[in-house]
Inverse folding.
């Protein structure tokens, strides 16, 4: 894992957009680029453009806390995220690029009887579906994280946790670049600094019409299929085709400290999350402690960071892990997230023919990148929604098939 | 015993739940008559927006407040 690997990346950038593509993907983040990558490598569809307003990975793909896990509480989500865990584990071998994937395990800690019951149920469901999630008590937790204060500062006693063994982290911009380079090598055009300003549709009548292409600040680009893969700005895109979807934009913040070394230079290995505190922390490859908490309740598209988060997140951190008190906050930042009503993503077809969305990734989008991209590529290539993502369609709201699993989202 | 579901055809009675009489109005149970937009969709404005806020840890009263969400 050496930073010099960056120098070896040779991406073939597109100079000018072509007049027409088979598929235009709006948003050069992980989900958009992964979809392009799998379209090209699994289905031979390479007449594809990825249109990005800024630079690739400049949105939430470059702002998340890089956690990969599948310890969800409903079967549809366990299946989907487990596929993503598997694809992530094989991503370096598949793309030939280092993404600094590291299996760490995740402790999901509870401080109440009700929390313990919910966590046991989730561990059982995971095991029944072949996912390694074990319920552990305070002594086992202390053995895995010697730094933890089991009394939780006297207010949040550690009563138990689920230990989700396959949880991992990967370097987020490496993931973006691995998919981008793999897609570009197959002939996919990646158009940075290109803003979509409108979407053209034809027909309509009684239906919602059919997509014919996208208007951009570099001219019109015709396309038979358009996928919206933006984060935070999905409704900006869906407004262009007059489609109303159950998404609102909220901020999520994170921070990193300076380097921490445990006794004898030991790394802080696992990912640690607390359900009742709504707080999570892991250590980056550089040794920084990376942490986050809840998304902000009031909708906002602003990337401004706030002192309220700095105060509340650090207070939660030292409640559980007092050693963090001695570290310094180096940096704090904000991403804007598409939050769906049931805290599950929305992937697939829409009432507008040829127009697809992948959204509602809220605060849990990074872990879904490979499985989301793989499934959407199959949908675009075959016209059939894969069983893995069928439950996540936009039509679930009309069908009363809500995937309510906010407790597994981690950030509530 | 089989019951005829207008959407799925004949299915085992165990899949159903008996509804009381009088039943709830059609606009609540019939997907075709429900206002799904009102139930699920929200405007997601980017820019100056008038919102309702509740002073939860203070006077416990609602008020309107203009905020720029961009």
């Amino acid at each position: 894992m050496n930073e010099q690997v960056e120098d070896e990346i040779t991406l073939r950038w597109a100079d000018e957009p072509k007049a027409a593509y088979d598929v235009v993907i709006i948003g050069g983040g992980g989900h958009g680029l992964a979809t392009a990558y799998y379209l090209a490598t699994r289905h031979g569809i390479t007449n594809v453009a990825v249109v990005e307003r800024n630079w690739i990975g400049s949105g939430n793909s470059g702002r998340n806390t890089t956690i990969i896990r599948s310890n969800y509480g409903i079967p549809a989500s366990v299946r989907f995220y487990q596929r993503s865990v598997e694809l992530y584990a094989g991503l370096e071998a598949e793309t030939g690029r280092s993404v600094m994937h590291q299996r760490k395990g995740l402790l999901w800690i509870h401080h109440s009887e009700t929390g313990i019951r919910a966590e046991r149920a989730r561990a059982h469901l995971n095991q029944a579906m072949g996912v390694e999630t074990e319920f552990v008590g305070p002594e086992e937790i202390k053995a895995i994280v010697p730094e933890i204060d089991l009394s939780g500062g006297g207010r949040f006693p550690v009563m138990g946790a689920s230990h989700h063994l396959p949880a991992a982290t990967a370097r987020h911009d490496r993931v973006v670049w691995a998919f981008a380079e793999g897609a570009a090598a197959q002939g996919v055009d990646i158009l940075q600094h290109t803003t979509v300003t409108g979407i053209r549709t034809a027909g309509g009548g009684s239906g919602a019409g059919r997509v014919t292409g996208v208007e951009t600040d570099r001219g019109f680009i015709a396309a038979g299929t358009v996928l919206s893969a933006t984060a935070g700005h999905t409704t900006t895109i869906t407004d262009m085709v007059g489609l109303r979807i159950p998404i609102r934009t909220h901020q999520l913040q994170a921070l990193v400290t300076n380097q921490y070394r445990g006794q004898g230079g030991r790394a802080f290995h696992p990912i640690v999350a607390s359900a009742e505190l709504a707080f999570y922390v892991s250590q980056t490859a550089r040794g920084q402690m990376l942490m986050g908490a809840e998304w902000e309740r009031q909708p906002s598209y602003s990337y401004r960071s706030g002192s309220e988060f700095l105060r509340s997140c650090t207070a939660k951190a030292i409640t559980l892990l007092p050693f963090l008190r001695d570290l310094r906050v180096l940096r704090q930042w904000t991403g804007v997230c598409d939050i769906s009503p049931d805290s599950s993503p929305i992937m697939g077809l829409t009432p507008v023919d040829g127009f697809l969305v992948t959204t509602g990734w809220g605060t849990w989008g990074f872990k879904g990148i490979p499985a989301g991209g793989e499934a959407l590529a199959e949908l675009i290539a075959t016209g059939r929604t894969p069983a893995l993502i069928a439950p996540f369609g936009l039509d679930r709201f009309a069908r009363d098939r809500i995937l309510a699993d906010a407790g597994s989202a981690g950030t509530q | 015993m089989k019951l005829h579901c207008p959407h799925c055809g004949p299915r085992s009675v165990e899949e159903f739940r008996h509804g009381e009489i009088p039943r709830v109005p059609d606009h609540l149970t019939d997907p075709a008559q429900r206002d799904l937009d009102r139930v699920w969709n929200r405007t997601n404005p980017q820019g100056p927006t008038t919102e309702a806020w509740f002073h939860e840890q203070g006077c416990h009263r609602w008020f309107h407040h203009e905020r720029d969400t961009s």
Remarks:
- The longest strand of chain A covers residues 248-259.
- Residues 19-65+172-246+341-409 of chain A form a domain with the FAD/NAD(P)-binding domain fold (CATH 3.50.50.60).
- Chain A touches chain B through 18 residues (CB under 8 Å).
